[in-house]
Design a protein that fits this description.
elongated; 108 residues; alpha+beta
């Protein structure tokens, strides 16, 4: 029983140490996004009828494409970590996407 508890505690301590090291690396070399109001208006060119959409977020918004699928993505911070970000796909289509406008307004 002592060995089992020792293995669990050792594993837990290793996870904590790895987490602290990864967080430290991202604090030094991770991106430094400014929070504010990001607004993107984009046009999706569907066959015979383009349509415009507007999206806002407090961190950057981006467009990506992979194997013919185009995506609009929002960036968000992974809680409780600092400077570790991930993206969430908001819109996905095979139709071409054009950015009409992209603005950033700093909030205080």
């Amino acid at each position: 029983m002592k060995t089992f508890v020792h293995i669990i505690l050792t594993t837990l301590i290793c996870f904590v140490i790895v987490g602290v090291v990864v967080q430290g690396i991202f604090l030094v070399i991770g991106p430094d996004y400014k929070e504010g109001k990001y607004t993107m208006t984009y046009r999706v060119h569907y066959p015979n009828y383009p349509k415009e959409y507007t999206i806002t977020n407090n961190l950057p918004i981006s467009i990506s494409s992979y194997r013919g699928v185009n995506r609009v993505e929002k960036t968000h911070e992974e809680v409780p970590f600092k400077k570790i970000y991930s993206t969430e796909t908001i819109f996905e289509t095979t139709a071409p996407i054009e950015i009409v406008s992209y603005t950033y307004k700093e909030t205080k």
